[in-house]
Amino acid sequence: MKLRPTLTLRGVEIHKGILDAPEQAAMRDALSDVVRAAPLFRPEMRRGQKMSVRMTSAGRLGWVSDRRGYRYEPRHPAGMDWPPIPDCVLAVWRAVTGSERAPDSCLVNYYDADARMGLHQDRDEADFSWPVVSISLGDDALFRIGSVEKGGKTESIWLSSGDVAVLGGPARLVHHGIDRIRAGSSSLLARGGRINVTLRVAG
Ligand code: MD6
Ligand code: FE
Fold this sequence. Notes:
Layout: E1 7-9, E2 12-15, H1 21-37, E3 54-58, E4 62-66, E5 69-73, H2 87-97, E6 105-111, E7 117-120, E8 132-138, E9 140-145, E10 155-159, E11 164-167, E12 176-182, E13 194-200
Antiparallel strand pairs: 1-2, 2-11, 3-6, 4-5, 6-13, 7-12, 8-11, 8-13, 9-10, 9-12
Bound molecules: N-[(3-hydroxypyridin-2-yl)carbonyl]glycine (MD6) and fe (iii) ion.
């Protein structure tokens, strides 16, 4: 892993190309073990619409969404414990946060060619003084960043495989989302698509 000068967009710190190709492949393989232990599922939102992104988690707490709302749970909806967070993923958290405290939640999102994620804030965690660290693998994604307040101006940036984004400090609660994926832009994942991993101190 090489820490290079970061780029900052609306307070979000972006480390381009922090993972080289072998590191990306190792993380892909570690995440496929996570998915084998805790299968991807398509969460429902409060009104019953299904998200287009499929998800699972690793760590002590996993993020779930259903008609009862958004929250962290100690178990997968199918009942199993979440698997441990892979070491290669924890190493990225340590490198970009410098923190000794490990994250307790690792959300794994899988985007196929048509998946997207609407503008949202990450606000289901107990303590917003910890950053959220996000790792991109596979196809490029157009990441939109707005403000802490709803509405107003947004700016977008393409995230590529091996990039890491950090939402911390005054940017911890900015609105953000994924407008679209550039299908076929990466050959990292055999079936194509994109994986996004987000690390958090959740509870
Ligand atoms: C994604 N990312 O990149 C969606 N959340 O697929 C997020 O929702 C996100 O990138 C919190 C912090 C960083 C993120
Ligand atoms: Fe988010």
